[in-house]
Amino acid sequence: MVDTKVTPSRDSFEIDDGLEGVDDFVNESNPFENPFHDTIANDEPPPAYQEPLQPSARISDASTSGDAGTVPSPTPAAGTEPQLGPGLLNYYSRYFQLSTQDFKTNLHESVAFKLKKENDDEESSPSTISREPTDLYGAIWITATVIMSKFLILGLLYLLRQGIINGVEIPERQMESLYLSLVHGIWIFYSYIFVIGGASYKLLNKVDDQITLAETISTFGYSLTIWIPISIIIEVVELFQHDIIRIIPLLLKVFFVACAFAKSSIYLYSKLSRPNGSKYVNAIIVANGVFCLLVKIFYF
Amino acid sequence: MSDDMIEPDVVESRVGGGFGGSSSAGVDAGYTSNRGTLDESVYETFKRDVLDINTRLKQVVYPHFGCPQRCTAADTGRADVGDQRADVGDQREIHCDLWAPLTFILVYAASLSRSNTNALFSTVFVSLWFVLLVMAVHLRLTKIRDGNSLLSYISISGYCLFPLVVNNLVSQVILPLLFHNLESHLLYRIYTALRLVILGGSLLWSISAVSFVTKSTTFIQVYPLALCLFGVGWLSILS
């Protein structure tokens, strides 16, 4: 039976002329008014924020800092609204929603010398491994800080030494090397974070299917924290490399790069080690060593 | 033909102008205006756009050191519009333009590459737009609940380049004119020290401005913006 019920017309243009055309779509929702695209102007948060964070299973520091920690949920709970696709910018906002206290905690863990090895117990399963808060904020901006530290600090040291103390202009050669190191720093550090981080995720996913790409990249990003003080120290050494015997600053640079390698490797091992995944973690440590070598050759 | 016959080419559902929806530019136009550009002279269109830019620029140009609530709706003449309208305005997308950022970047790149090759101009031009994009993406990701678009944040970040443009003009044009005899070591020391001091002041100005107009208060929100602006400002001191 044909339904003859006539729905009230929305406007005078809602007339079906029987031909294909724009009027066929009058009753359809406008994709540009899709609430998934533009709900931020409303009170309701976008779908990515319905449950972006979950209570953390982190055991440590919960009692001391008063911050229980949170873990972003890459996949919302079943029954909730559909999540945003990775092609949208809003999708990635969940990885940048962290408090300053969370960031400080993560930063402190990445530079602390005493690390808890929670994940290397052979009897533990991937499901019992404690999950740290996942954010890409650290991976992006710690890396940027490492790169900019050389550009800013070394430039400042050149300026103080040449411009203020000696009263002469900075040589063109030094300026070119400064800009060159900036370019090299960008491709070395960000390639390390995303390429090696992505490859490590692929490896670790074989033994731990719960690990996420964001978690791996975040770990690699925080492992670079040690490079910030190391970079500043090496820049000070580099400033005086012409005043002392050339071999001494070279040895000092190698020593500090080795220190950075050791510290970042320990951090990576403590965070990425998985049961039955020791060979993969060893491969990651080797990749970290190659990265440090590249940093020494091209950057310092 | 009467004016009623002319269909408006722009129907604004918002009060135009102003970062954070707090400008006075749209008061005269009303909340829902039928402002059209077909039935007005080019001079009027140009004048209105320039005044709009000037209105927004004032919010950045005036330093906001320690007065984060100064530029409120009441201060900018929106108090008489009504609370309801102001509430709607808070949820509104920021009315933005890219003319001022383009002008600032052109001036910045031109003054920086004044004594260098054209390659530097193009490099600085592209780099500055990239920095603005990075700042906008950061703001969009960390302040998504504010409901501003990426272009709005690019516009805001571009306006906040103004103090650095001033610093660049002073460092690259005015100071070399004053210190035309830089062969003297003492004069070069003073010249370098002045550039550092001016850079520090302009950076403080710029960072406080971008923190104010984007309502960024936490370290997480402000640090990346400060890092980007510091990098941009550092270009002028090293050239």
Automatic annotation (TrEMBL), chain A:
The reply on keyword DNA damage is no
Q: Which residues cross the membrane?
A: 136-159, 179-200, 220-240, 247-268, 280-299
Could you tell me which residue ranges the Yip1 domain spans? 128-262
Lipid bilayer topology: Multi-pass membrane protein
Tell me a Gene Ontology molecular-function term this record carries.
small GTPase binding
Query: Out of the domains of life, which is the source?
Result: Eukaryota
State any GO CC term.
Golgi membrane
Q: Does the keyword S-adenosyl-L-methionine apply?
A: no
Protein name per its UniProtKB record: Protein YIP
UniProtKB/TrEMBL annotation, chain B:
TM segment ranges: 119-138, 150-170, 190-213, 220-237
Q: Which GO terms describe its biological process?
A: endoplasmic reticulum to Golgi vesicle-mediated transport
Mode of membrane association: Multi-pass membrane protein
Q: Which organism is it from?
A: Zygotorulaspora mrakii (Zygosaccharomyces mrakii)
UniProt keyword Transmembrane helix present: yes
Keywords tagged on the record: Membrane, Transmembrane, Transmembrane helix
- Which cellular compartments is it found in? Membrane
Taxonomy, superkingdom: Eukaryota
- GO CC, alphabetical: membrane; trans-Golgi network
Family to which the UniProt record says this protein belongs: Belongs to the YIP1 family.
* Claim: Heme is one of the keywords in the record: no
- What is the protein name for this chain? Protein YIP
